[in-house]
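Write out the 3D structure for:
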Amino acid sequence: MTKSSKRHYLFGPVVSRRLKLSLGIDPVPFKTCSLDCVYCELGKTTDKVVKRQSFVPPREIIGEMIQFLRTGNRPDYITISGSGEPTLHLDLEEIIQEVKKITSIPLAVITNSTLLSDPRVRGALKSADIVLPSLDAVSPEAFARVNRPHSSLRVDQIISGLQQFREEFSGEIWLEILLIRGINDTPEEVELLREVALSLHPDRIQLNTVARPGTESSALPLVDEHLQELKEFFGPPAEVIAGSRHSSAKVQSGPVEERILETASRRPVTAEEIAAGMGLEMKEAEKALNRLLEEGKINLKQHGEKGYWIAKNK
């Protein structure tokens, strides 16, 4: 892929904590979402909506995918996620089906679950290999505090949508629960989450916590010991996914700095993640990041013991 063929809807491959080396598809405009989660690493939701729209023609996404596949790179997964809620795209079913026609790479969709009560959304996801829905709260109070939803959304309807989706979907479901200290990690809320999660019979229950700088500084992570205790409480098939998973795969798919900006405009990333995801030596990644910093295109934000790079255009 040359510099002149800049990608607008694909990003990465990036190192994912859940999906190893993942090529991302971003089908909706930045921060177009049905929630405004306090922990979101992309900042506040600027367009909180539940109405589905055809944001971009599927052919444009597929065109970029064809160009990427011509490079010969092969990530572990193609992941529809990005900088908003992907199920808001009205043509999601067509996007998934067209991607499946041109590659055998497994396709995953990351969703906040809010639209799964809509049978058209459940139908759109049926061709995916893996769907990774989230559920951060069961009580309306915790749901409001953690996810700050669109005014039309009710958590009981979301849970019902998840239950219906489990009955209809033949692929794998990896349910993510992101826990925030003092908000949705109380014994009462955790008991409710466990009850609902197990009733969904997901292939995996993935316990997570705040790992990157979020929208609100008050969104604090759980300590490792607490996460491990909760894993035991949830029982199989629960696993803790907090912390990064690195890949040794060598991937180059275009100008280094351009690829960095594509990724850092969609989520904060560490230098280690950039190096692993792009197949670079750490010194190469650090040099490219410092050049972007000098040019005013990227910022460095400290979160805990790690530094995260965030593109300035977002």
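Residues 131 and 208 are 17 Å apart (CA to CA).
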